[in-house]
Write a structure and sequence with these properties.
Strand content: 5-15%
CATH architecture: 3-Layer(aba) Sandwich
Radius of gyration: 16 Å
Number of helices: 9
CATH superfamily: Glycogen Phosphorylase B
Family: Belongs to the glycosyltransferase 11 family.
Protein name: L-Fucosyltransferase
Number of strands: 6
Keywords: Glycoprotein, Glycosyltransferase, Golgi apparatus, Signal-anchor, Transferase, Transmembrane
CATH topology: Rossmann fold
Number of domains: 1
Distance between the termini: 42 Å
Pfam family, one: Glyco_transf_11
Pathway: Protein modification; protein glycosylation
Helix content: 40-55%
């Protein structure tokens, strides 16, 4: 935990930007506007965790280049992971970041407890917001790996993702799997129109 605190520090301007995401959520969904002291990244994360009304779970969905490589995680994997966390944490809310936000917007459009980061957010903003979550769901790639590592907590990863090395070398030991289906070939069944 101490290593995480030392290697990743968000800029004050990014913390302010990201804090507005949470403030707007609480104002709209819970009817109050929390006051956050934005001293630093870790203190903001602790303040979020103390708001017991919500357990934040970050989801990173990598798709753009992975579709052509047939490494893109299935929708079933994502929904199974969401189902797991929803059963475990009845107050679960999910924050989705992705390199294909239009796809995710269509995929999760009927889920009231799933929020997408704004299109104006940079990759850095997305990393900061995922790192503030208490738990994570990741698809393939190093971005999701780092987001989950920085967030801490429980991490679900797609077990079939070919990492190019042994599973023990790639996935952090406390992380666990659910039986997801990585496409063995390009499957248009999962492309939402």
């Amino acid at each position: 935990e101490e290593l995480r605190q030392r290697i990743f520090v968000a800029l004050q301007s990014v913390l302010e930007k990201v804090s507005n995401f949470f403030i707007q959520f609480y104002r709209r969904k819970r009817g109050y506007r929390p006051q956050f002291l934005l001293e630093n990244h870790q203190s903001f994360k602790r303040q979020l965790a103390q708001l017991n009304s919500t357990t934040w779970i970050g989801i990173h969905v990598r798709r753009s280049d992975f579709i052509g490589l047939s490494y893109s995680s299935s929708d079933a994997y994502l929904f199974d992971a969401i189902k797991y966390y929803t059963a475990r944490y009845p107050n679960a809310h999910f924050i989705v970041t992705s390199d294909d936000k239009p796809y995710c917007k269509k995929l999760f459009r009927k889920q009231s407890n799933i929020l997408l980061t704004p299109g104006a957010y940079s990759v850095g903003d997305d990393l900061v917001i995922l790192s503030l979550c208490q738990h994570s769901i990741i698809t393939g790639g190093t971005f999701g790996w780092w987001a989950a590592y920085l967030a801490g907590g429980e991490v679900i990863h797609d077990k079939i993702y070919p990492s190019g090395c042994s599973r023990r070398e790639y996935y952090y030991p406390p992380w666990f799997l659910i039986d997801g289906n990585v496409r063995a070939y390009k499957n248009t069944e999962y492309i939402l129109r």
